[in-house]
């Protein structure tokens, strides 16, 4: 009887284990089971700013390596969030169980004719911390060079920031967000030529390279040098900023 009981118990545990694995796999494939993906509006700015300043800046590889904090980075983050919310392409991610915002996707629009670009307010870049100035120089270079690298493009959808809190990563959220709410045919009809992304983390670079984006250029090691000669050191597999592009005009 002990043997029969042991066999029954083993089979029961196996079924539970298989069910658990299937449940986890299903959740991983479809993160909407555990998370709500909500189109972001101006009213959501405060919550997005809170997550960006208190979590994004302290985990994003370039921000960490360059020593950017919520105090030194607040104005720049405010500018990016305000600019992105001007357009209808942003999302917040809410964990259903706790009701907490655990991430977001910010996107904006960029034109060859820069006079058409929306700017929420003027940035006093001369007052920025050196780490932000290094980051800004790299980003501005890529924003400028995209028009040389894509001479046929005039209007581009731009991925500004996609962030998922570290406690909720590896759930398929970033991939789910990649093209969420983006109808490529409607974008083409609205005059968009492509989607641009300056990928600042190794994980994001890998995601884009596997999902139809082409690597156009990347930052050089010499760009990561402080005024006193000290090199900027990354703390993970990230080693550069990479400019990716997905052509919508094919």
UniProtKB/TrEMBL annotation:
GO terms for molecular function: N-acetyltransferase activity. InterPro entries: Acyl_CoA_acyltransferase (IPR016181). PANTHER family: N-ACETYLTRANSFERASE DOMAIN-CONTAINING PROTEIN, N-ACETYLTRANSFERASE-RELATED. This is N-acetyltransferase domain-containing protein. The lineage of its organism: Eukaryota, Metazoa, Ecdysozoa, Nematoda, Chromadorea.
């Amino acid at each position: 009887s002990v043997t029969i009981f042991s066999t029954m118990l083993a089979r029961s545990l196996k079924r539970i284990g298989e069910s658990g694995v299937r449940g986890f796999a299903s959740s991983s494939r479809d993160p909407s089971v555990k998370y709500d993906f909500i189109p972001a509006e101006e009213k959501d700015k405060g919550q997005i700013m809170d997550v960006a300043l208190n979590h994004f800046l302290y985990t994003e590889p370039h921000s960490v390596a360059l020593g950017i904090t919520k105090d030194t980075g607040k104005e720049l983050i405010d500018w990016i969030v305000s600019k992105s919310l001007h357009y209808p392409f942003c999302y917040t991610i809410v964990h259903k169980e706790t009701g907490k915002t655990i991430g977001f996707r910010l996107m904006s629009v960029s034109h060859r004719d820069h006079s058409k670009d929306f700017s929420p307010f003027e940035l006093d870049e001369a007052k920025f911390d050196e780490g932000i100035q290094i980051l800004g120089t790299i980003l501005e270079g890529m924003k400028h060079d995209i028009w040389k690298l894509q001479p046929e493009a005039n209007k581009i959808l731009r991925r500004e920031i996609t962030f998922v809190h570290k406690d909720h990563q590896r759930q398929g959220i970033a991939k789910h967000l990649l093209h969420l709410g983006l109808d490529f045919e409607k974008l083409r009809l609205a005059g968009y030529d492509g989607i641009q992304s300056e990928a600042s983390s190794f994980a994001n670079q890998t995601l884009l390279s596997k999902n139809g984006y082409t690597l156009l250029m990347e930052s050089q090691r010499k760009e990561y040098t402080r005024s006193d000669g000290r090199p900027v050191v990354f703390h993970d597999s990230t080693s550069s900023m990479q400019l990716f592009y997905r052509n919508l005009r094919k």
